[in-house]
Amino acid sequence: MTTVLPERGSGGERPGGQEAGALGVADHLAMFDAAIAADERIEPRDWMPDKYRSGLIRQIAQHAHSEIIGMQPEANWITRAPSLRRKAILIAKVQDEAGHGLYLYSAAETLGADRDDLLDKLHTGRQRYSSIFNYPTLTWADVGAVGWLVDGAAITNQVPLCRCSYGPYARAMVRVCKEESFHQRQGYELLLALSRGTPAQHAMAQDAVDRWWWPSLMMFGPPDAESSHSAQSMAWKIKRHSNDELRQRFVDICVPQAEALGLTLPDPDLRWNEERGVHDFGAIDWSEFQEVLRGNGPCNEQRVTQRRTAHENGAWVREAAAAYAAKQAARTAADTTDAGAAHPAGADSTGPEQHTEGGPAV
Amino acid sequence: MTVEQPNTPSPQAGWPLWEVFVRSRRGLSHTHVGSLHAPDAALALRNARDLYTRRSEGVSLWVVPSAQITASSPDEKDPFFEPAGDKPYRHPTFYEVPEGVRNL
Fold first, then answer.
1. I need a surface site. Which of A2, A188, A260, A263 has the fewest CB within 10 A?
2. Domain B15-94 classified CATH 3.40.910.10?
3. Nearest CA in chain A to B52
4. Which InterPro entries match (chain B) (predicted)?
């Protein structure tokens, strides 16, 4: 997501820091504020306030972690998908989630974060992921409810992030949002098939929606009055809308979609408010949210353990790939030495297309 | 102009970082789409295919070690780009064309 990495390992100096002598912090800050005010994007090598950087790393990392932890609840159903069509779709979706995680880790790295360090923080519980993934997927219908509601809520949250002030994050979100809309539609279609199926299938779909509705509303985060990072994020245009605003938008989108599904949303207080032009909905049980956040959700332990196990089990693959790369590099180096006289340097400068397999030693 | 030295990957990051460029279709140039980690060029290409072209977004891929890119100075408002700033006569809109003159 960036052309060039920020400096690393140069005594903790940050990108842009080299010029601190020529321009003072106040000048840099003024330029940064002007760029934000003009709705310009901040790019990796620009000067930025420390809190802008650290806040973004925290947010992007948490987002990346959510994507890769989010693979688990659905991967749970790949082997039990009811048809080859559904299985192929589900595999593609889970693969997409892995891809989204990688886009986002890549964006976090442009801020100077280290990918291994971020993964380590996830594995040791020092960084969080979205608490929605601490709920279990009990039936096949849950795959549908996750697609429709969880991915739907994610899209509502993420579409404004495509205009986030930090360039690499915004660009990653554009890709993510394009791909998420398939996720949401496949979930909706799946639920529709169940809803129109046998009474047992219909009941299964309704049960899944009943369980996922409230946790999905919690995905937008605490009410505005209690949201700790919101004000600064809005000022820096990392966030464009408040938690409550997005939550309301999501509810209004979902109500007619639920009707079309022939399913109900589990909220007796949910009704159209003519005066406000939006739906009123019931109070959210934030104590549940806090409990899950504290690590007491149904699957917190399981998710992190499985993530850690997968990482450890993949160690030999990473080692083998590194060993193979080292061997190939050594061979190429040896060949180059042998053939040095026959192929003078420059004779092979035919552009990157020519250097695919094997390529020059790098 | 401050020439940035290529970055060396941090020791704890096992694999080097690669920048990925995709030609989305014939007739267009390769465009930067993002980055990834891979131990060598061959795997970087395969990973790039799986990560950035899952929906046939490309007909050709380039991967370039991030450390090999030389960039202009960090600040994009740098004097490095100043020489072009005071030469508006390089643009056709600089010139006045009399009313009624066409195909110019």
1. A260
2. no
3. A99
4. PaaB, PaaB_sf
